[in-house]
Amino acid sequence: xxxxxxxxxxxxxxxxxxxxxxxxxxxxxxxxxxxxxxxxxxxxxxxxxxxxxxxxxxxxxxxxxxxxxxxxxxxxxxxxxxxxxxxxxxxxxxxxxxxxxxxxxxxxxxxxxxxxxxxxxxxxxxxxxxxxxxxxxxxxxxxxxxxxxxxxxxxxxxxxxxxxxxxxxxxxxxxxxxxxxxxxx
Length: 185
Description:
Blueprint: H1 2-25, H2 31-65, E1 70-74, E2 78-82, E3 89-93, E4 96-100, E5 103-108, E6 120-123, E7 127-130, E8 133-135, E9 152-159, E10 165-173, E11 176-184
Antiparallel strand pairs: 1-2, 2-6, 3-9, 4-5, 5-7, 7-8, 9-10, 10-11
């Protein structure tokens, strides 16, 4: 916001200096013409300022229209959902690794090559490992709300259709999933 005001201040300062130089070096200038020129200049500065603000707003709206938002859900089944406004591509969920004493539990998520349209979800099948050996669970017990005993952090990476990268950091806990952070990388 400060940058906008400095830009406006710079335009006005440059304009005032140019007008002062013109008035100083033009001995035969008419007063009416001078004031018309000054008024026209201020109108042009104001118009430029307003146009800059409209361009910034349009740019923000375009960014929001092109932003997917992929979240993990584990209500009845494990799935991811795109709750954003654009198609999500190259979705990757980073593995969850938890060490508890002598036990190392790891949950691996599949990579997605198919795009996920806005307001669509897809079921995912995870693989759970305990000390490096795959264990067969109906759902990954470490993330399933029926079996979970503590919290896990999931990081979901994805792109929009123009290649901009995003990520969501999500806390998964018993009967609760919370988005901690969602931003462009």
